[in-house]
Amino acid sequence: MTSRVCLVHYHEVGLKGKNRAHFESLLIDTIKAALAAFSVDRVVRISGHVLVTFSDADDARRAFDVIARVPGVARVSLAFRTRRVPQHYCRAAIAALTEFGSFETFKVHARRSHTDYPLSSLELNAQVGDALCQAFPDKVVRMHEPDAVVNVLVVQGEVFVYARSERGAGGLPVGSAGKVVTLLSSGIDSPVATWLLSRRGAVCVPVHFSGRPQTAASSEDLCQDIISAYAPAIQIGRLYVVAFGDCQRAISLACPSALRVIMYRRMMYALAERVARIEGARALVTGESLGQVASQTLENIQAVDDVVSIPVLRPLIGSDKQEIIDRAQAIGTFDISCETASDCCTLFMPRRPETHAKMCEVRRSWDLIDHEGMLEQLMDTIEYVDFTSGSYRPPRALRERHRSLAQRGADSSME
Ligand code: ATP
Ligand code: MG
């Protein structure tokens, strides 16, 4: 019997030496989580690939696009799985080439893995090639750069045949590189930065600063939309939301106008570091790109880094805006980021922001505000929204705090 399956290829995951088994099982877990809505039968390792089987035949075709977006997947192929019977796998090869789409030239690429099958790879190439030449008499066999390649993989008693194959997201499975806190605005850059860190295997915990109560909450909704756009291939477990409007107002009243933006950023970073401590995250991530806007000069970057002691990762620091836009379009966040939302970025902005801040002036200005008091107050009122995620583990500290809050609520309702 012939069935449809997805064959997942991975490069970097396989290169991890002694950790290989750990990375492979993380990849399997993240693929399973991403395919929760499909009729997945099994996700197992098979001869340097991950094989995904389904109980509903149509699901392989639909799951193909989802699997391609899962970090750690180098390539995914939509394959026919047949018995080791020439008639069966030759028929599958014809079907695979038919569904490939338009092509003029093709070749067969056969491989054998751990098998006692009597035909060699070369003999298999010739056998399947003959069948295809008969089925497609007006097409041409070409060994060098053909339009279509029909792959035939013999593994023990089974044969996998595929022509449809797509490059995956690449990178490493989420969960293999620890946790980071990402500063997520609803702009174009930080959703891309968050995606890039997820692609490198980090569990990303975004923190969003909203202009509430000075503005509406629309930027918060857009952040949730961005998180939905990553799913189900990348599953963010929790979005922290900070109502930052009043704090910005206080800063704008107390600090020199030109330094306001730097003060806002310092407050954001310092708060994100506190969230990172609670979450057990080892770094902050931002979407800054050198020189892109006034606040992103080397002096200003130094002026905000000054307030935190954990590393601040800036995966877009050397990217051009157009490259970032291209990536945002590819991952599906661009259109969301283009929606206008009132957020804290446009609130209480100075007419002439400082582009080359001097550290002594920055620190002096910082001391004009009760920054510790503000941070504590913001941490006390921080909110969060949870999403389905196979890789995120909530921190115990907050879980206990919320349990005690729930308990307090229950006690007061009994009084
Ligand atoms: P983005 O496109 O990510 O909004 P930007 O080009 O608007 O970035 P800035 O406003 O200088 O640049 O922000 C720099 C970085 O600071 C952002 O990439 C983001 O990581 C963080 N940041 C800015 N505003 C917010 C916010 N409201 N909430 C969370 N993080 C923010
Ligand atoms: Mg922005």
UniProtKB/TrEMBL annotation:
Biological process (GO), any one: thiamine diphosphate biosynthetic process
Catalyzed reactions per annotation: [ThiS sulfur-carrier protein]-C-terminal Gly-Gly-AMP + S-sulfanyl-L-cysteinyl-[cysteine desulfurase] + AH2 = [ThiS sulfur-carrier protein]-C-terminal-Gly-aminoethanethioate + L-cysteinyl-[cysteine desulfurase] + A + AMP + 2 H(+); [ThiI sulfur-carrier protein]-S-sulfanyl-L-cysteine + a uridine in tRNA + 2 reduced [2Fe-2S]-[ferredoxin] + ATP + H(+) = [ThiI sulfur-carrier protein]-L-cysteine + a 4-thiouridine in tRNA + 2 oxidized [2Fe-2S]-[ferredoxin] + AMP + diphosphate
Any Gene Ontology CC annotation: cytosol
UniProt keyword list: ATP-binding, Cytoplasm, Nucleotide-binding, RNA-binding, Thiamine biosynthesis, Transferase, tRNA-binding
Involved pathway(s): Cofactor biosynthesis; thiamine diphosphate biosynthesis
GO terms assigned for molecular function: ATP binding; CCA tRNA nucleotidyltransferase activity; tRNA binding; tRNA-uracil-4 sulfurtransferase activity
Major enzyme class: transferase
Residues covered by the THUMP domain: 61-165
UniProt-listed CDD domains: PPase_ThiI, THUMP_ThiI
Lineage: superkingdom: Bacteria
Signal sequence segment: none
Cellular location(s): Cytoplasm
Positions of ATP binding: L183, L184, H208, F209, R265, G287, Q296
InterPro entries cross-referenced by the UniProt entry: Rossmann-like_a/b/a_fold (IPR014729), ThiI_AANH (IPR020536), ThiI_fer (IPR054173), ThiI_N (IPR049961), THUMP_dom (IPR004114), THUMP_ThiI (IPR049962), tRNA_STrfase (IPR003720), tRNA_sulfurtransferase_ThiI (IPR050102)
Family recorded in the similarity comment: Belongs to the ThiI family.
Protein name: Probable tRNA sulfurtransferase
Organism expressing this protein natively: Coriobacterium glomerans (strain ATCC 49209 / DSM 20642 / JCM 10262 / PW2)
